[in-house]
Putative spermidine/putrescine transport system permease protein
Amino acid sequence: MSAAAIAPIGSADLARSLQRAERRRKQMAVALTLPLLVFLLLTFLVPIGALLKRAVENPEVADVLVHTGQALAQWDRQSAPPAPAFAALAQDLGALPESAQAGTLARRLNSEVAGARSLVMGTYRALPLAPAGESLTPEQVREKLLAVDPRWSETKYWQAIAKNSSRWTPDYLLASVDHRRSAAGDIEPMPADQAVFGKILLRTFNISAVVTLCCLLLAYPLAYWLSTLSARHANVLMILVLVPFWTSILVRVAAWIVLLQREGLVNTALMGIGLTSEPIALLFNRTGVVIAMVHILLPFMILPLYSVMKSVPPTYLRAAVSLGSAPLAAFFRVYVPQTYPGIGAGALLVFILCIGYYVTPALLGGADDQMLSYYIAQYTNVEVNWGMACALGAVLLAATLVLYAVYRRIVKSELSLG
């Protein structure tokens, strides 16, 4: 190649060549990461978006009682509903092709007002109100509906229909934080006997904090000991730490039921060494839940701590001792501060996993030990109230994001100070 064919350094051709090479490198990087981005979009972001959408969506009433909602749009929600609303209700219920839709509507209204289920289903079965070909005036329809069930004269049922006639509603999210909309549409706190989710959320945080603290107290000395061993011995012992990852959670919970029962190994050992004279209640209470969750989540605390501790040079402690510091003081003043990133990462990971736990409290805990995930499953599988289940899931998601934001802020402040 002649010297004339080589672009001189700093020429426009060389700059364009470098730009093309950089552009190709970026395109290659995007192409390599595109499958992962698509996978995350389909399996993570789309489900979260659907969850948040369903938490504010209220289609059960709006899609079925279309004409009734329009007839009640100008109603003051205090006086008796107008006669056209009765006619619209009969029209909407009579247009339902199958009883399953009426059952869905009845369940939704019954969650607002007790007795609405029997009222709606009884009225649906009584339709049509007139023989085929005969038309009734709105006043006649009202009289016939009242004859079918006099409860249609009570405004509370009509208030429930009017309040849920919109497809989008904040009711589920309000209920998840112990608030509701009144019949007039104003936001107000739930009555004391119905305000339960605030207590459940605090209970969830309480159990998660206790489990996280226990994991930290157990994992820190074990991770420190592993970090002082040779690589060969540490790898062998790390296998024992990772054994819980290879065992099903249900199997481990079943094993703890056997161990913690009144005649189980734990109570037998405690009585055998004389610590107790009779079996201790370790099942179906908070104690059993915490023990099992600590056992399951302990590796998630050990691994971040171990990875950080392995990067701390042991010469720091020896240097502090050689300068006159007591060994214990040197450990807490020199060594422990350098493991804060591992403590923060492990605590955050364990706490976030804890607040979403369902199986272990459901099998080992009592009625007062169930966490928020239990009620999400209850609304999903038993009551078939997807809106309420998604609203509670949104609360857990918000709590997780807040915890992560706090952790990021703490880490950034520590890095800036360092």
